[in-house]
User: Fold this.
Amino acid sequence: MSSKHFVLVAGNIGAGKTSLTERVGERLGWRTAYESVRDNPYLADFYQDMARWAIHLQLFYIGHRAEQHKGLYSAPESAIADRSIYEDAEIFARALHHMGVVPDRDYDAYRRTFDLVVESLPKPDLLLFLDCPVDLLMQRISQRGREMERGITADYLSLLDRFYKEWLAGFDLCPVLVIPSENLNFVERPEHLDIVVDRIQQKLAGRENIVFPD
Assistant:
């Protein structure tokens, strides 16, 4: 198994991506990277007026995540990132277009830009997908109490969940490890983190048909 890896963490809002990234990075001594929230110049405006700011936000994410992706891949140590550039187009921009927030003209221009950018990106070694039912996602979002997330609905999360499943069905850039975050409390139970880290290492070593405990 190679001594250096580049791993991406994907999943719906509230699935536990940041928590997993933090803990895997700390356990394995990997570099970590996260979504740009506090220094994002469009996010607050987007939540106030989605139709006006949606395409600006998505274009910001293309540049931000492509830069982050290249930097982590080129780092001398292994790295793990909370959220991937691929989700921006395949999940979130697609959802905004589906809901009519982003019109066809803007969406087509965005997709052309996105496709040109990702063509030049190096492939990750592994994609971790945190799978979690919508009712639990709603519960977690409510518990963390972020003001910007107060308008998130179960219908919206269900749409994202459907798009995630469709995206993963055709994803072939690298191996995918689906982690059932409903059953594994890797935040409060160290033995569950042990299981996740073990399965990640097995997948990076090329093992298939990895099973998680029920």
Summary: The chain has one domain: 6-204.
